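Thread: Newbie trying to understand structure tokens

Hi all, I'm a second-year student working on a class project, and my supervisor (Dr. K.) asked me to get a predicted structure for one chain before our next meeting. I've only ever worked with sequences, so writing a 3D structure as a token string is new to me. If someone could post the tokens and maybe explain what I'm looking at, I'd be very grateful. Here's the chain:
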Amino acid sequence: MKRTSLVNKKIIITGASSGIGEKVAWYVAKERGIPIILARSRDKLEHLKADILYSFHIDSPIYIVDLLNKQETKKVINEIIENHDPVHGLINNAGIGMFAELSAMNDGDIESMIQLNVTSLIGITKQLLPYFQKQSLAHIVNIASQAGKIATPKACVYAATKHAVLGFTNGLRLELTASSNIYVTAVNLGPVKTNFLHTADPTGRYEKNVARYMLDPDDVAKKIVQQLFIPKREINLPFWMEIGSRIYQLFPAICEKLFKSQFMKK
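---
Reply by user tm_fold:
Sure, no problem. This is what the structure looks like when written as tokens:
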């Protein structure tokens, strides 16, 4: 299917100050779209805004927001709708991971993961949904994870949040089946070489163990932007990991036994 042009399409991107979000904003602007970038770090967003303006002559609006603050987030989304109508897309990219056994995690870290990865994502989507339903075309992209398909030790809470994102995305897509103007896509990724892993595992052990498998955030962002405004159910990277997840769904006990060492990389 031929993709709708991104020229002048306004796309909200959460967690845009670094990693995948930053790269997605860059490639949206490269295709003459207008990324509306959200994050907590003003300095990083202003730097990205300046780079995009210099490179593509695109003025990318920035919004400083703590997505853990529900009222602050609602206010920012309302401001975006009011100031930048029409808005055409939403990429729910913001997220956090912390790799540890459940018994070693504190309640604050657990709550932060659930709030940012799930509650905020659902809240922003719900707030924008009536608005998107009035547009001729809109696209909601949720960054999930291969962890949403295969849970591993030391990532049970993180996996739970990504299971939730994937379930939410699939359910929402089915709810909107009759509404052909809104596309809903889940992006399921293996490990990506970003600062995400520095927070998830400060020891660097996991990053070292999976170094040869890690995805390039630049390649990931290109793939996401290439699929914007196409009715794509899922983007799964890397491909071999997606095949593995399908086999796992059929033979979970066998896979857990055969690939125990792989599951213990964290």
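A couple of things are worth pointing out once you decode it. The chain has a mean pLDDT of 92. DSSP finds eleven helices and seven strands in the chain. Feel free to ask follow-ups in this thread.
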